[in-house]
Amino acid sequence: MKAYKVEILIIDFDNLGATGIKDEFENTNYVNHCMDPNVMKIEEKEIGEWDDDHPLNKKETKEKYYIQLFSE
Description:
Layout: E1 2-5, E2 9-11, H1 17-27, E3 43-46, H2 59-70
Antiparallel strand pairs: 1-2, 1-3
């Protein structure tokens, strides 16, 4: 499974991929046109198999794992 960094962390449960995630952000009709996102940069990292014990799925380990993952 992959995770993507676009200033927020996205766990790709549906295998959208970087292009699919970018398209979802940019082509969604937001209520009252409250925002108009344009993805300028996206980083992709392999995170292995997903399960309930994955460090990104736990409040106490998510931030540390995220920092370690995207500082490589």
